[in-house]
Design goal:
Elements: E1 5-8, H1 10-14, H2 24-34, E2 41-46, H3 59-65, E3 73-77, H4 81-88, E4 94-100, H5 103-110, H6 114-128, E5 134-140, H7 153-165, E6 170-175, H8 182-195, E7 200-205, H9 212-221, E8 226-229, H10 249-258, H11 267-274, H12 277-281, H13 288-292, H14 303-307, H15 314-320
Parallel strand pairs: 1-2, 1-8, 2-3, 3-4, 4-5, 5-6, 6-7, 7-8
Helix pairs in contact: 2-3, 4-6, 8-9, 10-11
Length: about 325
């Protein structure tokens, strides 16, 4: 049974997209619950400017309030040197840096050229140094850009190489707008693993076009063993309004469990945590397993099946189909 490492991103990637501000104590309580679920890593928050992302303006308070679980890494998004300085004061395990491999998307999303982003992130890596805090770089739009279209694999590999040379421990390949498809995922993942075997490789899928679970299978075929996912499927992208967000953690965990993979996760505890989300964010989530139950969550047999006291009409059969 192959060991996989599952990484929760809802409390950063998901919460930053919510219109309702989730109170600090509620964030802390949810993260504490997630810490008991068997995750390898939890992306807790973002040290971006509170003006830019007011939903995560309580980053320091959240990091100070959570109870750390041994064996779980607590990572945060760090956009610049100021963010790095704030994060380093909060005993983080990892700093997650972000830029797009698509020039047009990077300019649109970060208001910088790719070279400007790289220069800024190089400064961040310099501030963090080679101490106990690990560096992960999340590369957005590697499987396609909503403005540019396809991004050549060589461009993606080139950016991975530049960050590997700076000492990054890991790289995340992000399907930012849900444009990936399974054979593409398998091919690019294989190229990255073969060229950079020392890097901790993570795949990050969005379910914009309903392909996130299929893309997970493509990554598994390439030997990938680390995956981001979001409790309840929270998250989204401004270039796909109304679409689902990140791949739903409980849906992907359920699939992997059925296939015999060891995820280290307690799916019952994850479902209990996911059930809390609607009350926090004010709307339902895309989670299918939360709605339908696990595959073998069976229903009681109706009494008429035992007694044959109820005759089923043709109309009832048609409705059942």
């Amino acid at each position: 049974m192959k060991r996989l490492f599952m990484q929760e991103v809802a409390t950063r990637d998901g919460f930053q997209n919510e219109k309702t501000f989730i109170e600090t104590e509620d964030k802390i309580s949810l993260i504490d619950a997630l810490s008991q679920c068997g995750y390898a890593k939890i992306e807790v928050t973002s040290f971006t400017s509170p003006k830019a992302i007011p939903a995560l303006r309580d980053a320091e308070a959240v990091m100070a309030g959570i109870r750390r679980q041994p064996g779980v890494e607590y990572t945060v998004l760090v956009p610049n040197v100021r963010g790095a300085e704030r994060a380093l004061g909060c005993a983080i395990n990892e700093a997650n840096l972000v830029m797009s491999v698509s020039e047009s998307h990077n300019r649109s999303n970060l208001r910088m050229t790719r070279e400007q982003s790289f220069a800024q992130l190089r400064e961040v890596i310099g501030v963090i140094g080679h101490g106990p805090v690990a560096i992960n770089v999340s590369l957005s739009t590697v499987f396609g850009c909503p403005m540019q279209g396809d991004v050549p694999d060589d461009e993606v590999l080139g950016w991975v190489d530049r960050f590997a040379e700076l000492g990054a421990r890991g790289v995340t390949l992000c399907d930012t707008t849900g444009m990936a498809y399974p054979s593409q995922v398998q091919t690019l993942s294989q190229k990255v693993r073969e060229r950079f075997p020392e890097l901790q490789l993570t795949l990050h899928f969005h379910n914009t076009r309903g392909m996130a679970l299929a893309n997970t299978l493509g990554a598994l075929q390439a030997g990938v063993d680390r995956f981001d996912a979001s409790l309840g499927g929270l998250g989204g992208c401004p270039y796909a309004p109304g679409a689902s967000g990140n791949v739903c953690m409980e849906d992907v965990a359920h699939m992997l469990e059925l296939m015999g993979y060891d995820t280290g996760l307690d799916l019952n505890q994850i479902l209990a945590a996911s059930a809390r989300l609607a009350g926090l964010i004010g709307h339902e989530t895309p989670s299918q397993i939360l709605k339908a139950g696990r595959r073998l969550d069976l229903h009681p047999v109706p009494e008429h099946v035992h007694t044959l006291s109820k005759q089923v009409s043709l109309t009832d059969l048609e409705k059942a189909q």
